TrEMBL record:
It comes from Jaapia argillacea MUCL 33604. Residues 174-183 have a biased composition (Gly residues). Residues 165-192 are annotated as: Disordered. The lineage of its organism: Eukaryota, Fungi, Dikarya, Basidiomycota, Agaricomycotina. The keyword Zinc applies. InterPro entries: MetalloPept_cat_dom_sf, Peptidase_M13, Peptidase_M13_C, Peptidase_M13_dom_2, Peptidase_M13_N. Pfam families: Peptidase_M13, Peptidase_M13_N. GO terms for cellular component: plasma membrane. GO terms for biological process: protein processing. This is Zincin.
């Protein structure tokens, strides 16, 4: 909360990161004297030096949770053994939220200006010029340009200059004549150089985006993204990275010889892009990746913070200069950095009484309603229905809080975070240390069995998830709070709001992607062909329905909810599970009524059935800027909240019956137009 201290510290924490990136990319020690042997007595292998430098810089960023060039994750091998934790290789996140933004001139020009500002703010204006240093190392003797004071300065931090754009040692590539210039020829000042280099970084990112897999396939096609290969295939496709050296940064328990790649063509495409890009542009790209990730942890008066904020305002439609409460920002930072620890406090404060038991009952009632509905589905034969019931029974239900680290035991939490260095005066470093700790824990999973007590969310997270390889549905205490749940709510409210969440996650186990995983979480065709064909007809119905929905783009135009043909179908199918929540509520209604748990709220003239649907819809109430809505459509597999309500009840005849809708009402279509999966 000490914003004055952050402003006084200024850019220095980010500058330290940038200097380290530059030092690593160039393969140099912080002490030039340590390199004398290489400089004076040996011919340095420039290609090896570039490879080692790039590997070290990328590993440095990844070890601190900063994405760049590619991404590794550790998860189950869904084709062989879903509980054997295996290495997965994938594409990186982009500087802009999705590919589509790189095609909008107004966005890319603003983004380029942000990159330019970040390159300037992370530069070292007093550092020695790169051409002068190159001249010194190539001649093997001190240049006349170097005074004693300047050479002495080189022995200390930082040893290298920034920006490094006077000449490209590797000869240009796509840099439009920027290669190989002699020292001193480039008279551009650092702001003008940053402008030139920002254009090159933007073009580099456009190429990476074009080489990346579309998000709807990446997130929703488990067969397309399951491509096991030997490590040697990756090392040959992407020779610019020394993967054994990269892995050594994370000290995994087992050295990987096999991995799974989500998009087989990406490594070779990235290799081609790297070959056509100068080292200085790659260095600038890596520096920008760090700045975009970490600038928000600087003081709000810093240029880096302001630059990143400018982009955020544009992409999210935030009023210029409008900054939220600092307290909310700090709470969010504590949760993201120390979420299992803060989750313990959250649970102790908010998740007492019968919250866990009552929440679990809603979930298990919905599982039973789902199983009962299977025998009535015309598109699913008995063999597939029996297998689906078995999968539903096999799903692990987790409610409230994780047991690794154990939310109930302070010692378990302390052990998990014992590597995190915290100091009240170094907010930026605290965040980086927490990110590093998470990466260590991630890589410790490699080649181990899945930890069934581990969660992918904190206890305080207002969300839930289905994990296909683990075959589990997980509901943190954060979503077992209003407006989704309270232990003393009447049943129709609890089943309408939280029941909708529970049914959504359960239905994911049988949606367009989840149905491809069997009871053990393994990729397998476990439905009959006839059932699969019947499901496809209904999935196509859902796709057609939601493809007709649009949102305003804030510029007088419309954007379709389905950016690609079926980009939201998995989540929309998940939302059709609302009918299971309704059936579960009805199945327990009489017992709940007798127990006094179906009381009518005072002052309301609605029926309980109507209040069930009102409770469902209320949870999705939202005010959203057009810019944020567009970003969500492009990056989020869920439909906009409006259509998560209207599109869902469109396919629930019980809704129209509860509200006695006219046959002409928009949300009471003819039965033949409805997509009735369950």
């Amino acid at each position: 909360m000490d914003e004055d201290r952050l402003d006084n510290i200024g850019e220095e924490p980010l500058l330290r990161i940038a200097r380290t990136i530059r030092r690593l990319v160039r393969g140099e020690s912080t002490d030039i004297g340590a390199k004398d042997e290489d400089v004076r007595g040996k011919k340095v292998d420039s290609e090896k030096k570039k490879r080692d430098g790039l590997t070290a810089a990328v590993a440095y960023l990844h070890s601190r949770g900063i994405g760049a060039l590619f991404d590794f994750d550790i998860d189950g091998d869904v084709g062989v053994d879903p509980n054997h934790m295996t290495l997965w290789f994938s594409q990186p996140s982009l500087g802009l939220p999705s590919k589509e933004y790189y095609e909008e001139e107004s966005i890319t020009e603003l983004y380029r200006s942000v990159l330019e500002r970040l390159l300037v703010s992370t530069s070292d204006p007093d550092a020695i010029n790169s051409e002068e240093l190159e001249e010194l190392t190539e001649s093997h003797v001190p240049s006349a340009k170097f005074t004693h004071a300047r050479v002495h300065k080189m022995k200390f931090w930082p040893p290298w200059p920034w920006p490094p754009w006077g000449g490209d040692e590797d000869g240009g590539g796509d840099d439009g004549g920027g290669g190989g210039g002699g020292g001193g020829k480039d008279k551009l000042n650092r702001t003008e150089r940053a402008k030139v280099e920002s254009k090159k970084v933007l073009e580099f990112e456009k190429k990476v985006a074009a080489a990346s897999l579309d998000l709807d396939i990446l997130y929703q096609d488990p067969y397309a993204t399951y491509n096991p290969i030997p490590l040697s295939n990756l090392t040959s496709a992407l020779p610019q990275i020394d993967f054994p050296a990269y892995f050594s940064t994370f000290a995994p328990r087992a050295f990987p010889s096999r991995l799974i790649i989500t998009y087989p063509s990406y490594p070779s495409s990235l290799s081609t892009i790297l070959n056509s890009t100068s080292t200085s542009t790659i260095e600038a790209y890596l520096t920008i990746r760090a700045a975009l990730s970490l600038a928000q942890n600087l003081g709000t008066s810093t240029e880096s913070w302001k630059a990143v904020r400018t982009m955020e305002e544009k992409l999210r439609g935030i009023k210029k200069g409008a900054v939220g409460e600092r307290g909310e920002f700090c709470v969010g930072k504590v949760e993201s950095a120390l979420g299992f620890a803060s989750g313990r406090y959250f649970v102790n404060e908010t998740f007492g009484g019968e919250s866990r038991e009552k929440g679990t009952k809603v979930i298990t009632d919905i599982v039973e309603a789902f199983k009962a509905s299977l025998r009535n589905l015309k598109w699913m034969d008995k063999e597939s229905a029996d297998a689906a019931a078995q999968k539903a029974d096999a799903i692990r239900v987790k409610v409230g809080f994780p047991l690794f680290p154990d939310t109930r035991r302070a010692s378990s939490i302390a052990g998990y975070y014992n590597r995190v260095a915290i100091d009240e005066h170094t907010f930026f470093d605290n965040i980086v240390s927490a990110h590093t700790n998470e990466q260590i824990w991630k890589w410790m999973k490699l080649d181990r069995r899945r930890n069934m007590d581990e969660w992918e969310m904190y206890a305080s997270t207002v969300n839930a998830y289905f994990n296909p390889p683990a075959n589990e549905i997980v509901f943190p205490a954060g979503i077992l709070q209003p407006p989704f749940f309270a232990q003393d709510w009447p049943g129709y409210m609890a089943y309408g709001s939280f029941g909708m969440v529970a049914a959504h996650e359960l239905t994911h186990a049988f949606d367009s992607a989840g149905r491809m995983y069997n009871q053990q979480g393994k990729l397998e065709q476990w439905w009959t062909n006839a059932t699969s064909q019947g499901f496809q007809v209904l999935q196509d119905c859902i796709v057609k329905q939601y493809s007709a929905y649009t949102i305003d783009d804030g510029k007088g135009g419309k954007v379709h909810v389905n950016v690609s043909l079926a980009s939201t179908s998995g989540e929309n199918i998940g939302d059709t599970g609302l009918i299971q929540a309704y059936r579960a509520w009805k199945a327990q209604y009489h017992a709940s009524y007798d127990d006094g748990n179906e009381y009518i709220l005072p002052g309301l003239s609605y029926t309980r059935e109507q209040l069930f649907f009102i409770s469902f819809a209320r949870a999705w109430a939202q005010n959203i800027k057009p810019e944020s809505a567009v970003q969500r459509v492009r990056t989020d597999p869920h439909s906009p909240n409006r259509y998560r309500v209207d599109g869902t009840v469109y396919n629930v005849p019980e809704f129209a019956k509860a509200f006695k809708c006219s046959p002409k009402a928009k949300l009471n279509p003819p039965r033949e137009k409805q997509c009735l999966l369950w």
